[in-house]
Amino acid sequence: MSWIDSIQKAIDYIEIHLLDGDLSVEQIAKASNFSAFHFQRTFSILTDITVGEYIRRRRLTLAAQELVNSNDKIIDIAYKYGYETPESFAKAFRKQHKLSPKEARKKMGPLQSYNRLMIKIKLEGVIPMNYRIVEKDAFRIVGIKRTYNYKNGDNIREIPHFWDDVHADGTNDRLIELNNGEIDGVLGVCCDEKQNGLMDYWIASASITGAPDGIDSYEVPASKWVIFEVNGPMPHAMQDTWKKIYSEWFPSNPYKPAGTAELEVYTNENPSNPNYYSEIWIPIR
């Protein structure tokens, strides 16, 4: 099964089981031969929303269609689309459509439709992506970590605040001083999933010396890495490159992500500089 086929199969599974109240990321990922963590991460990079948010939007889109085109009771439609009370349904409905269910039924305003996702191959890649593939033994990083729930998108919302905190309290400068290992620069390290939908995210640096007080350490496993050059100011250059990697590079290359720790490497320069250089490291198989 190709990379594109796997993603499309997962989306098709969502649509088939959209009315299943207990539809989970684990079930969807299993249908596409991804881990739950990697599928959620890939989906978020490509669409800028979580799997859970996509499901919620699709359910409320279909619920709106039923309100307009049927005489079914609002409470029955609420239950059908996974809401335990009319109040919770009305709150979610208004958040998406800017109308109440009663107003939608009376056709008192436009509705917001989120259509079914379809993966299509486009002619992309005119702008080249500079990358290299290297193999490295395991190496150690030192830094600080926080744990996030990737299923509800905590990682997407909260990791930027983590970076703000690290710059504000001087930890970033401390990590620069500790950087004497395999890689030059401060690292953002997205680790593989833990139990119950949790993941660790590290802000760290590669170091061959011991971790001082207040700093933890982690061993990045031996891997074959694909390393992408990122050129441009933060955060947009990094975000754009991640999207190109998953929408262009992986679909047109024989590799797959290995599912272990992925790195963002930030050099000690002005991140607002239009020529700022950084890197993305992804373990592959």
TrEMBL record:
Pfam families: Cass2 (PF14526), HTH_18 (PF12833). The keyword Transcription regulation applies. Keywords: DNA-binding, Transcription, Transcription regulation. SMART domains: AraC_E_bind, HTH_ARAC. One of its GO terms (molecular function) is DNA-binding transcription factor activity. Gene3D superfamilies: Homeodomain-like, Regulatory factor, effector binding domain. The keyword DNA-binding applies. Residues 8-107 form the HTH araC/xylS-type domain. InterPro entries: AraC_E-bd, Cass2, Homeodomain-like_sf, HTH_AraC, HTH_AraC-typ_CS, MarA-like, Reg_factor_effector_dom_sf. PANTHER family: RIGHT ORIGIN-BINDING PROTEIN (PTHR47504:SF5). This is AraC family transcriptional regulator. It comes from Ureibacillus sinduriensis BLB-1 = JCM 15800. The lineage of its organism: Bacteria, Bacillati, Bacillota, Bacilli, Bacillales.
